[in-house]
Amino acid sequence: MSLSFQDASARVHAYISQFKEGYFPPLLMLARLTEEVGEVARVIAHQNGKTPKTGEPEGDLELELADLLFVMICMANERGLSLERGFERMMHKVEVRDADRWTRIDSGETAEQSGE
Asked: Does domain 5-97 fall into CATH 1.10.287.1080?
């Protein structure tokens, strides 16, 4: 399945638009975003040595990242922003600014072969 930012934005908007309350106010969305980042951190901690509390599942990183993406899409939709355009602008920025920042992998070599 392939899903563009535009498709995801439209799907989230269709879901939110069926409710009278609509999108949460900006500060509440920021609080939700912070909560979701914390849940991502919890899963990563559990996957990397921190023992979950008794009865607490390790968690599902894929689902938690998708929860984070949902809130980010809500924030962008509420503000009339294009995540696709923003992502393209961000990639251009890092591709230009960081073009020579990291050690490049030789052609034909993988990150695993280079010791990364």
From this structure: yes
